[in-house]
Write a structure and sequence with these properties.
Blueprint lengths: L11 E3 L5 E3 L7 E7 L6 H15 L4 E7 L11 H11 L19 H7 L16 E4 L5 E5 L9 H8 L2
Parallel strand pairs: 3-4
Antiparallel strand pairs: 1-2, 3-5, 5-6
Length: about 160
């Protein structure tokens, strides 16, 4: 049996093109990991604010990892190519968009199993909806979890604290 991951850096995920990405490449960076959707009522505000955060802190050791998920209201039905095209064209997002995953249930990705093992919401450990946010420290540990309705810009203080700026 595989040993339980001690940090997100022990995990490998697929990028939008289906290639393996070992998350150890993000060691030393503060990460904001978000399950995203293209057709959600919160799509515009979240992508707009995520872009603002990314632009402001990407050169200071901050990275956003976006994981499309279609488990909530069928709001991310497209293929990885369609999703990437939408995000990069409509929102000009520069942060990485990964392969579509499941965040809850039996087929939940190993990354989300790890993320949910740390900070629990009021509904047990399941992700409640699109745009749930997990803040991860430079050493790959989950330090906070935010509800889907939490504005990305409201996380700025917590991000700056982890970046030590």
């Amino acid at each position: 049996m595989a040993k339980y991951p001690e940090s997100v850096h022990d995990l490998t995920v697929k990028d939008a093109k289906g290639n393996d990405v070992n998350l150890s490449r993000f060691k030393g960076k503060v990460l904001l990991i978000v399950n995203v959707a293209s057709k959600c009522g919160m799509t515009n505000s979240n992508y707009t604010e995520l872009n603002q955060l990314y632009e402001k802190y990407k050169d200071q050791g901050f990275e956003i990892l976006a994981f499309p998920c279609n488990q909530f209201g069928d709001e991310e039905p497209g293929s990885s190519d369609e999703i990437t095209e939408f995000v990069c064209t409509r929102f000009k997002s520069e942060f990485p968009i990964f392969d579509k995953i499941e965040v809850n249930g039996e087929n939940s990705s190993s990354l989300y199993k790890f993320l949910k093992s740390g900070k629990w919401g009021i509904f047990g450990d399941d992700v409640q909806w699109n745009f749930a946010k997990f803040l991860v420290s430079k050493d790959g540990k989950v330090v906070d979890r935010y509800y889907p309705t939490t504005s990305p810009l409201s996380l700025e203080y917590d991000i700056k604290k982890l970046l030590a700026i």
